[in-house]
Design brief:
With 411 residues, this protein is α/β, with parallel strands linked by helices. 49% of the residues lie in helices and 14% in strands. The chain has two domains: 142 residues, no CATH class; 233 residues, Rossmann fold (3-Layer(aba) Sandwich). Strands 1, 2, 3, 4, 5, 6, 7, 8 and 9 form a nine-stranded mixed sheet that branches.
């Protein structure tokens, strides 16, 4: 199923590795399967609460992995850091369970994260592919409508919207352009306001009637908070509503799946013409730690492999994405529990079931959307490794034969 890290997984004879060179600076054999197995052993020990033995393996892995080596080295380095945080948190909580001192942190400065997100958007096709495909579905749904309202969850810097605004401007009468209103949600009001200002300036340059409304939602919101805010959104009868959930729905899973269904039913009641959904194609929400760990190891191995194939080892952008963006996600999946665990990704079939049970039907993505996504890959990411698949009227983008992101459209 996977690429380099498990290509030797079936080799069980330890003597086979005697002829591999050792890095004199590290003193450990370098085969991918050896370090992968050590990582898994460490996770198994943690799941059995043998933290002393797990700590010994973490020390070994910390000494032998590097954020500057090949993709195996780098993925092992990030997972080792995450396991270390989990072990330290357990030890810390046991030592001062009665104290109110904070446990070792896994969060990153919001500005650093935002900067890493923009870098991720530049050097990998996943975010651009999600935005492009969702935009095409929205563009096709709004055809012929004069008043358009987009409810966008998790707006961040709003990088999705300039291409859509440009497409709307090009396809409309410059003397009588349609009006566009975006309600953008996020947990940082200042970022939202800056985003709104940038989009407003861009819309003016295109001659579009445009309004942006920032809607502040706490980071890691409860579904109740989100539902309360939804009730405050002004849906005007003559407006055509499009709802955009790119890398958002999984954030609501920390409460309960029923809350996600309630959220989706509330959206359905707002009668949108289209709802676009993009999610990572992985089950990082498994209640059993070891299962979650294995799923994440497979998923991020493919992600790190894709970066290795498309960027040089000394690329600063590559390091930023690996250490800040992916590193933060890995730490959250592996080391966090309860309220703090927000990266609760689910596979496509789970979202299909939740959407259908909330009253939505799948809208097939168009042949034009497919050729557009293929063109994006060919022009900007010419590596053979990126694979685009059309399954059940939805798109999946992955590395080699492992799907990593899905995009689908609903009404």
């Amino acid at each position: 199923m996977l690429t380099s890290l498990n290509s030797h997984e079936e080799e069980e004879d330890p003597d086979r590795h005697h002829h591999h060179h050792r890095n004199p600076a590290r003193g450990l054999p370098s085969p991918a399967n050896h370090v992968r197995q050590l990582l898994i052993s460490c996770a198994e020990l943690i799941s059995q609460s043998d933290f002393a033995a797990a700590r010994r393996i973490v020390s070994l892995l910390s000494a032998s992995s590097s954020p500057y080596g090949d993709s195996t080295d780098r993925v092992v380095h990030q997972f080792t850091k995450a396991l270390n945080i989990r072990i330290n948190r357990h030890t810390f909580q046991n030592l001062i369970s009665s104290s109110s001192s904070p446990t070792p942190s896994i969060s990153t400065n919001p500005d650093t994260l935002q900067s890493a997100y923009l870098t991720l958007n530049q050097i990998t096709p996943f975010i651009r592919f999600s935005h492009l495909t969702a935009n095409q579905a929205i563009l096709e749904a709004i055809e012929g409508h004069r008043h358009i309202h987009i409810l966008d969850f998790n707006t961040m810097q709003g990088v999705q919207w300039p291409p859509l605004m440009q497409a709307i401007a090009e396809g409309s009468d410059p003397l009588n352009p349609p009006s566009i209103r975006i309600t953008g949600t996020g947990h940082d009001l200042e970022t939202l306001q800056r985003t709104g200002h940038r989009l407003q300036t861009f819309a003016q340059s295109l001659g579009l009637n445009f309004q942006f409304y920032p809607l502040h939602i706490d980071d890691g919101p409860s579904s109740t908070t989100v539902l309360h805010l939804l009730s405050s959104i002004n849906v005007v009868p003559e407006e055509m509503l499009a709802v955009n959930c790119v890398l958002y729905l999984h954030k609501l899973l920390k409460d309960d799946e029923r809350d996600v269904r309630l959220f989706l039913r509330t959206i359905k009641a707002m009668n949108p013409k289209v709802v676009t959904v993009a999610e990572r194609e992985a089950r990082h929400n498994h209640p059993i730690f070891l299962q979650r760990f294995m799923e994440a190891l497979d998923y991020y191995t493919a992600g790190f492999d894709s970066l290795e194939a498309t960027l040089p080892p000394n690329s600063q952008e590559r390091l930023t994405v690996e250490q800040v963006w992916f590193g933060n996600e890995i730490a959250n999946i592996v080391a966090a529990e309860g309220e703090e665990r927000r990266e609760r990704h689910e596979r496509f079939e789970s979202w299909v079931e939740m959407m259908r049970s909330s009253g939505f039907a799948n809208v097939p993505l168009s042949p034009f959307a497919l050729s557009q996504a293929k063109l994006l890959l060919r022009l900007h990411y010419p590596s053979e490794g990126y694979q685009l698949q059309l399954v059940n009227d939805s798109f999946f983008l992955g590395w080699q034969n492992k799907a990593l992101f899905s995009v689908s459209s609903w009404y």
